[in-house]
Amino acid sequence: MTRPDHRVKGVDHAAFPTFDPAGTVRFYRDVLGFPVVHSICAVGWGPEDHPDFIHFFFDIGNDDRIAFFYYFGTEPFNAGPFNTGPYNKSGRGDAYSAFGPEVPTYFIRSRHLAIHVDGYEDLMEYRRRLDASRWPVEMQIQHETIESIYTHDPNGYMVEITRAMRPVTPQEDLDDNRTIDSLLDVVAGPGPSLAKLLARKAELIVKRAAQWEHERLLLAGRAGEAELERTGFEGR
Fold first, then answer.
1. Number of H-type helices and E-type strands within the chain
2. CA distances, 136 to each of 32, 79, 180 (Å)
3. DSSP secondary structure string for all residues of 22-44
4. Is-contact 95 18, C-beta < 8 A?
5. Are 117 and 162 in contact (CB under 8 A)?
6. Helix axes 194-220 and 170-187, enclosed angle (nearest 10)
7. What mean pLDDT value characterizes the chain?
8. Is the pTM of this model over 0.90?
9. Cα atoms found within 13 Å of the Cα of residue 160, Cβ hemisphere only
């Protein structure tokens, strides 16, 4: 299968609503040190009932930005306590969404923004800044190839700052693609599970082993006619 060419250059911006612009500026600009790089003030926006707003942006490195909308006169929906701000009565969620007690915590925490830094010293510097603020680090975790710190911003959004502990190898990239191919096969059928995914992945590895060997030989420049006949492939 031929995939489309990859032309994007990164995230221009990810945007979120806020009911606490002062806290948001303190967190991102004054605590983390992300400079304000753009803002838009608008009188309404299309429909007559659209409120006036300001849309402001912080630089998070590599020409990427995180942005917020503050709508003048719009009050928090279902206001109640969350962390340091009044966002929803359940106390579980953020300025954008609220979750009832039936929703597990792991699901709520799955939505977050991760920002990467170069190394351990940078990660610990951001930990120092956060721990000295109203928004201290809640978790520091090493998982597989990365180490991360986590906190919630004044809007209740989970923010992760992460650093790579080692490079990801080409072999891991290949393995990751086999994992996703297996996932797509499994969720297309009844009762998807991790056990079924791993079993399907093993089947794909066996099925494609000969093709991988053929491609390895091509890359090594040693695939003659006899080898092409043995592996059963006539080229790409």
1. 6, 10
2. 11, 24, 35
3. HHHHIIIIIIS---EEEEEEES-
4. yes
5. yes
6. 140
7. 87
8. no
9. 17
